[in-house]
Records
---
Amino acid sequence: MGSVTEFFERLWYRPGASERLLSYTLWPLGVLYGSGMWLRRRLARRRRFPVPIVSVGNLLLGGTGKTPFVVALASRLDGVWIVSRGYGRKSRGLRVVSERGEILCDVEEAGDEAMLMARSLPWVGVIVSEDRGAGIEEAIRRGAKLILLDDGFNRVEIEKFEILLEPAEIPNRFVLPAGPFREFPFTAARADLCLKEGREYRRMVRFDNLKPRMLLTTSIARPERLDSWLPEGVVGRYVLPDHAWFDETELRRAMAEHRADSLLVTEKDRVKLEQFKLPLSLMRLELAISEEVFEAVDRYIDKE
């Protein structure tokens, strides 16, 4: 699984000459897939809910900062519930992850991103559900005045305010499987706000509990994104595919092999590692977002 993930990340985000040739070979499949997604979007009947819904999503597979963006947005809103699919979780169906500051399930049921949001926003309710409509209905039943829909751009059946995030660089603009796009790139024009990293939002990093020798340990998409922020003292890497679960025995072996004092992890990784009681150094990934973005969201909410 890891090697397959690495192959496609290289094909889509770090293409060399051979990868570019393969992308062009797969291009007809991408056109076919993209056409199906375009038709799905055109034929969709959009359902309107009785509360405002703000979606934060992207057109590409891989990390664009959706989770910290949702956290930053939710931190300034009242009466909000977050509805997410719960990628990578070991459960199915609808789960209420948190309500009024109480965590109601464990990280394996919730998934790493949903648990991170629940921990970061104790005054916000969090629900995971493959059926996003059912998740929205449950949030409204529990008193939600506003819904933040995590990774919701492709939920074409739901009427919502669309925020679309784009990475700073996109080296391959083809549609799956030739490239990382879930739909044709021109679909971005359907978003209410299309935000580019480095323009309307940028990442910031703070560190806690740094040690002299740290093993970078992560299961996020495109972990090379962390490279420009790594502090001194990183003596090795233990990298798994996005949303993968860690094994304590393997981590202890890797720490011993590198003579590491701690594991250097993101907050998304930390929620899956706390149960092991291993020493952790933390990278806190935060976003600085243009004030115009918040103003646009406020106008939508006030209008609704």
---
Amino acid sequence: MHIMKPIVIGIFAAFFFAFTFVLNASMDATGGSWIWSAALRYIFMVPFLVAIVLARRNLKPLLKEMKKAPQAWLLWSFIGFGLFYMPLCFAAAYSPGWLIAGSWQITIIAGSLIAPFFFARIHTSSGPQWRREKIPYKGLMFSIIILLGVIIMQVESAQKISLEVFLLGFLPVMVACFAYPLGNRKMMELCDGRLDAYQRVLGMTLASLPFWFILSIYGVSTVGVPSISQSLQSLIVAISSGVIATVLFFKATDLVRKDMKKLAAVEATQSLEVLFALAGEIIILSIALPSPTSWIGIIVVMLGMIIHSQASIKRSTSIPEKIIDNPKSS
């Protein structure tokens, strides 16, 4: 699989993902609760995904697959969707969308750091053997450039607000950064190519529903029911980010699921969310332009993404493929 196809798909996914950051900021600005921003997205996703999977006649194979390992589906869906999106919505109450999108790029580094949690089967002279994946240090070095850009963006923001508010807008994003790639990769491992992107997104959404229902009950008892405006915006997020972007991103990662280097390059495309989210907030919310310091950080993040992807392309065309199967569960 040539790396450019999944990278292009990843860029389109980043565009639709950016709606999350813009509309979450919009909902918070109009008094909407982060609880409903999080829960409604996944609840609204269900009918759209069910319709798509039914139209493709793939619902029964999905349900059969989920029955094989219900506990694993519940666990990794909770991590990949619940611990990913709830913290992002919570952080929206303390930071602008573009800054959260910038901090979110640490997921690129997180994706490299979690590699040892997986195993891959390789060819050896004595036959196929399982080998623990290694952290791709060369790719990680390029990812550090992205981290530097995030730090530059955050410096000025941290100077203007209290430490408590800064941490409430930053630490939840860090949780999401590790939860999303871990949950996504573990589900790819569990499915082992037997489900397409639509089935996997629907399966994870269904498996995460118990968490969203519990969060909804908490929301009703604390902040009341959501407004019509927040419900409509959550519906837009569900379609753009929850259905379109997630399916595109899962499709891109599925294409390169057997190569951690290519997978890291695809995940790096999500750094474009910073520019997309910034443009959206300027156009829709009329926010002020970032300061010169923040622009430097944004440019550094983008530069890191480009270098990271180019390096991965070179490695993928110069190193023979050794992995012949999906990672084995650790």
